[in-house]
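Researcher: Next entry in the queue.
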Amino acid sequence: MPSRESATTPPSLRERRRATAVREILDAAEQHLAEHGPQALSLRAIARSLGMTVQALYHYFPNRDALLTALITKAYDDLADAVQAAVSAGATSADGSALPGAVAAAEGYRGWALDHPERFQLLYGTPLRYYEAPLDGPTTRAVRRMGAAFQRELFGGFTTAQLAAADLPLLSPPFRDHLDQMPPESPDTAVPPAATALYLSAWGQLHGLVILEVFGHTGFLGDHRAELFRMTILNLVEDIHRRIPAR
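Model: Structure for this entry, 247 residues:
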């Protein structure tokens, strides 16, 4: 059994240097994404910006897919951090009254997407050719972390029995079975099929609005885009909560 002292042994100099190099490569890759977009990702250009050869870069990331997986995982984690920070800060209406945490989470999601459009496109834009994320790998775990935050804010305070009795169109047996077999976003946020269907429907509407805005399709709304987004999400959350019976 390892001792307490060995369990807290600090990383070696070599490990610290490697961690620093990995951070510098990811920072350079994110800068390259911001300037050229996901489809133009170039390992050679990233290596050149750091004054290293592609062969040296491969010492840290053995291929393009390994670097992409790290970039996507970090983007999802940063997005989840932004969502959680927005929830912690809270959101208030024009009269100062507190809004549901799910509204704050959605606005945190939108804010990060608008601040980092190229990284958002890396996650949700046109799939990069030949790239396949590792099955149940770090990218999957990262996106589930973000989903868990939304589910906590959307369904927090409701019991499993309430969520299972949500008022929505009858789900077909095959669809219900499929939802029932989906892995939970986290062990603490497992929800019954009816609530999962509500969550996925809400996610589609929220995400659709953000996609339209990030890709420049709502410019005709001018400065009113944030107001439309808040109104839509608030109505969406209120509708979902009306569908869940009281205790």
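Model: The radius of gyration is 21 Å.
Researcher: Noted, moving on.
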